[in-house]
Amino acid sequence: MEQDHKMDKRLKISEIAARTQLSVSTVSRVLAGKANTSEKARNKVLECARELGVMDGMAAGRLLLNSLVVFAPQRAFDERSDIFYYRVIQNVSKGLTAYEVRLRYCALEELDSDAQLFLARMNEAETQAAILLGIDDPHIHDLAVDVGKPCVLINCRDQRMRLPAVSPDHRAIGELAADYLFSMGHRDVMTVLCLRRYTMELRLAGIRDAWQTHNLKFNDKRDLLVSPSFSAKEAEQRVSEWLANTPDKALPTAFLVGGDFMAAGVISALQKRGLRVPQDVSVMSIDGFNLAEIQDVPLTAVHVPRDELGTEAVHMLQQRLVRPNAPIGTLLLNGTLTVRESVRRIRPGKRRTAVEREGLYDA
């Protein structure tokens, strides 16, 4: 295997040299990070190396294990039950394709997890490392530390700060979304969230931060609707009930919604009230899959990193294997603002004005 690896490396260097018409020694110096090469040669080599996938191999190096177990809630293994976690797991698998690693799975509840099942899997001789996806049970985190095998958390946290983790920066993502609405002139914003996990509470905290930054006071009774789930149906029902008891003059100029499916329910409720999106009311979402259109309305949203979580967790696990005594921390991934057509700019002093499209954040 070692000999094959060296041979493959030589072949890549020769191929890059042939493609760039540079010498093998020049290519070798660039890939080794040496300073005695021209900027032009360096750029040519690096561009070619990226095309050939050499850079990925250099960044990833080797994963010093042969078997990995992913623990996650049962719904994570069914695309229809939880597409977000399902795709995260897919990208853990994708991140392992360059290595000869056997990937196994085990379903655990988020809280009140089966500790005996966890220990049984962790103590198996073939289990060399683990990834915990969305497991909030602190007892499981304690056991993971006690077992002592490399373990990385995805979208959850060890409150005692002993296990490395990668997660979306939920608080900053919430703040980004609310700040965008404020930048578009909105001041009367209704937030619709499902607060099932602490991650949603973090997003709400970020939304509150944005209100405070803009010298606005967030009032839970006035500015927050809590939906029991992330489904379109329950969001529509919750918003419809609220609309039925709210006169037109008290309607917000925008809804900030914690999920694309929920946003579909909100838009449906607004349309049944005779309100157009975005001409009468703007709607913005925070989600990981960013549906292109809802009810024929291209949806403005903050995209929560999803596919990147699995890939980064594999890299983080690799770093733990190479540097087991390195400092432990949490990698927080930024969200991405996607501007489409469901949010309109409104003029100061105007509540609902179908004027110019979102120009401030357009790429």
Integer average pLDDT = 87
Q: So how many helices?
A: 13
Structural class: alpha/beta
What's the main sheet like?
Answer: 6 strands, parallel
The CATH H-level homologous superfamily of the domain at 170-303: Response regulator
Number of strands: 14
Low-confidence stretches: 1-7, 352-363
Shape: globular
CATH class of the domain at 170-303: Alpha Beta
CATH architecture of the domain at 170-303: 3-Layer(aba) Sandwich
Order of helices and strands: HHHHEHEHEHEEHEHHEHEHEEEEHEE
Radius of gyration: 24 Å
Q: Bin the helical content.
A: 40-55%
User: Strands of the largest sheet, in order across it?
Assistant: 2-1-3-4-5-13
- Named CATH topology of the domain at 170-303: Rossmann fold
Strand content: 15-25%
Q: What is the CA-CA span between the terminal residues?
A: 47 Å
